[in-house]
Design a protein that fits this description.
This protein has about 220 residues and is mainly alpha-helical. The chain folds into 2 domains: about 1-105, Alpha Horseshoe (Serine Threonine Protein Phosphatase 5, Tetratricopeptide repeat), CATH 1.25.40.10; about 115-219, Tetratricopeptide repeat domain (Serine Threonine Protein Phosphatase 5, Tetratricopeptide repeat, Alpha Horseshoe). It has 11 helices and no strands. The protein has helices at about 5-20, 25-40, 45-60, 65-80, 90-100, 105-125, 125-140, 145-160, 165-180, 185-200, 205-219. Helix 4 runs antiparallel to helix 5, helix 6 (about 105-125) packs parallel to helix 8 (about 145-160) and helix 9 (about 165-180) runs antiparallel to helix 10 (about 185-200). The longest helix has 18 residues, at about 65-80. The radius of gyration is 21 Å and the shape is elongated. The termini are far apart. The relative contact order is 0.06. InterPro entries: TPR-like_helical_dom_sf, TPR_24, TPR_rpt.
Length: about 220
């Protein structure tokens, strides 16, 4: 028996004990999260999905919506890792996560979940929903870091949709805000996105200048 199996047996024994005590729900969920993460790490995505399903149910029963949404996002990662073929259950999980996101009372936590949702929807090609998520972050967030990321992702989505001219203002806003916040690496990524958009918009000289700024940001 390898270390992975031994550790899983140890955790599963602890989970059985924690289930007997309602007062130890937090420890139960934490341990289940660790088990699911270990399954993912070792490529056993099917078992990970099952564990996440169980822990999400506990979080929802306890009305811990922030924790439930975070677990749903991790469950999507397990689903995506299970097969190179897109599983439609990804969208069911993401849609459930989006529905419950409004119940998160902490504004920063809500905007972080919305950001991750936007990234996941964008990755899976549901750009309209991704844009709505980033719009919500821009509308709700008072955290400038999250706002900068939302602007960056809005521009990236526009590029992926081929709406390069519409994306240019988003790239420029993200560049400025990342610069003010001292996020040089992120600013460099935005300059690359801007250069790509400018190239497709036939603004070649401006694109070349953006590429130079990107190289400087990455130094």
């Amino acid at each position: 028996m390898n270390n992975y199996d031994i550790t899983i047996r140890y955790y599963e024994s602890a989970i059985s004990d924690f289930k007997l005590s309602p007062q130890r729900r937090a420890m139960l969920c934490s341990t289940m999260d660790k088990v699911a993460a270990m399954h993912v790490k070792h490529g056993d995505h099917i078992r990970a999905r099952g564990v996440y399903y169980d822990v999400i149910k506990i979080y929802m029963d306890e009305q811990l919506y922030e924790e439930a949404c975070s677990a749903m996002l991790r469950q999507v990662e397990a689903v995506l890792g299970d097969s190179p073929v897109l599983d439609n259950s990804c969208f069911s999980i993401l849609d459930e996560c989006l529905d419950n996101c409004d119940k998160i009372k902490n504004n920063v936590a809500k905007c972080k979940v919305l950001t991750e949702l936007g990234l996941k929807y964008s990755l899976l090609g549901r750009f309209a929903v991704a844009v709505d998520c980033f719009d919500d972050v821009l509308r709700l967030s008072e955290d400038k870091q999250l706002v900068a990321v939302a602007m960056q992702n809005m521009g990236a989505v526009k590029n992926r949709l081929g709406e390069f001219t519409a994306g240019i203002p988003w790239h420029e806003k993200a560049i400025k805000l990342h610069g003010n916040l001292g996020n040089r690496n992120a600013q460099g990524q935005c300059f690359c996105n801007l250069a790509n958009a400018l190239t497709h918009a036939q603004r070649i000289d401006d694109a070349a200048e953006a590429f130079i700024h990107a190289l400087q940001a990455f130094k």
